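Record 1 of the preview.
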Amino acid sequence: MFNIKKNSSTPLAKSQERFETLIGRQTEIQGTLHVVQSVRIDGKVVGNIEAPKDQAITVVIGPEGEIQGDVLASRVIVAGKVAGNIDAYERVELMTSALVQGDVKYGSIAVEHGARLLGLLLQVDASQPQVRQDQAQNAITKAKATGKS
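->
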């Protein structure tokens, strides 16, 4: 009778991405997390999350997930909280429930209505990472120096 449409576009639903590493809701990790494969975080990480630049690794922060540190990966999907900078060489996705308190560097971006960002959005070109990184850092420094607190 009613045509209910399923929202299959959310990347947090089952997808082709395979997560060998899952950090559960009751888990808290302190320290830098070096990942060599995609990871989904539903718990808390106090420290940076780093993935090699030459590998297509996705870091997903689930709705219950919380990161207190920087996230560096090819793709970053946020549905929870990040208190730190995000550097996604390829793509960033901010879901409706996302709260990011930090600057976001990205190749491409998708932002759902309702996502919250307290920081700068800086698009970078992966083909010229060093030049773009320097320009991005200069823009951040300039914005912080001229910004009103």
